[in-house]
Design goal:
With 248 residues, the chain is α/β, with parallel strands linked by helices. It is built from nine helices and eleven strands.
C-alpha cells in the first residue's frame, strides 16, 4: 500500500524558469518540493588534457553537444594558448547551443551548423562534411549513441574529455528526510550511496526517469515506486502526480 507524499527532493539544480511543472505540482497538491544537485560538472585541468595527447590544430571542425562542451572547449583553448582559427566549423546539436557560441566567437563570421535537438539530426549535417577532421569535446560520461553513429558513418573524429561528472557533497542532508527522492540519471543513484553508504529506503518513495536510471536503482537494491516515462504519464511530474492522486 502506498503512503501519502508530503515532501519531495529532486536530485537536480533548482530550475531558473518559474514555469517548471514541479512548482505547479507543489502548489496544486500542497507538497513541499526541494531541489539539490546530486552531481556536478568539473572541468579537467590542463595536465589531464595534455595526457590525452590531443592537438587542437589537427582539427577543422568541432562537434558541440551542450553548453558545457562549448565552455570547456574554449576554456582549454585559452589555458593552452590555442587561438581557434576563423575557419573552424562548429556543428551544434541544437540552435540553443549554436546561439550560445556567441559568448565565445563573433557569430556571423563563423561557419556554424546546427541540428534540431537530437544527435541523429546533426549527423545528417556531419555526413555532408565528411572530409573534415572532427573534434568531439565531451564529459567522461558520453551517450553510446554518439560514438556509434559517428563510427557507423565512418567520420574522422577524436573525442576529448574536457570535463567530468562528479559526485556532490550531500553531508548536510544526513538528518533530513523526504517522502520521495527523484532521480534522472545513474550518476544520481551513485551519488546517493557514495554520500550515504548506509542508506535504507524504509518508507522513502523512489521516482526514476528513464530505463538506465531505473536499472541503476534496481541494481543498487532500491524499490521503485514511480517510473517515467509511462504510457499514462510521459513526464516525471505527471507520474508523481498520478501517484499523489492515488495515495494522498
Amino acid at each position: 500500500m502506498g503512503k501519502a507524499i508530503k515532501s519531495i527532493l529532486v536530485s537536480q539544480p533548482k530550475p531558473e524558469n518559474k514555469k517548471s511543472p514541479f512548482f505547479g505540482l507543489s502548489d496544486k497538491h500542497d507538497v513541499k518540493v526541494d531541489f539539490r544537485s546530486f552531481i556536478h560538472v568539473e572541468g579537467v585541468d590542463v595536465k589531464e588534457f595534455r595526457e590525452q595527447k590531443i592537438n587542437f590544430a589537427d582539427f577543422t571542425a568541432v562537434i558541440l553537444t551542450s553548453r558545457k562542451a562549448v565552455d570547456n572547449f574554449f576554456r582549454i583553448c585559452e589555458k593552452t594558448r590555442y587561438s581557434v582559427p576563423d575557419s573552424m566549423k562548429y556543428f551544434c546539436v541544437s540552435e540553443a547551443v549554436a546561439l550560445y557560441l556567441q559568448k565565445h566567437v563573433v557569430y556571423r563570421k563563423r561557419k556554424i551548423f546546427h541540428g534540431r535537438q537530437r544527435f541523429i539530426e546533426l549527423m545528417e549535417l556531419i555526413k555532408k562534411h565528411k572530409s573534415e577532421k572532427f573534434l568531439l569535446p565531451s564529459s567522461d560520461i558520453l551517450k553510446d549513441v554518439i560514438p556509434k553513429q559517428l563510427e557507423a558513418a565512418e567520420i574522422n573524429y577524436k573525442r576529448a574529455i574536457l570535463y567530468k561528472t562528479v559526485v556532490s557533497d550531500l553531508s548536510d542532508l544526513e538528518n533530513v528526510f523526504y517522502d520521495c527522492l527523484v532521480f534522472y540519471s545513474p550518476a544520481g543513484i551513485e551519488s546517493l550511496f557514495k554520500n550515504f553508504p548506509e542508506f535504507q529506503q524504509n518508507d522513502t518513495r523512489i521516482a526514476v526517469f528513464g530505463e538506465t536510471t531505473k536499472n541503476a536503482a534496481v541494481n543498487a537494491g532500491l524499490e521503485i515506486n514511480i517510473a517515467a516515462p509511462a504510457p499514462n504519464a510521459p513526464s516525471m511530474t505527471g507520474a508523481i502526480e498520478a501517484y499523489i492522486k492515488e495515495f494522498n
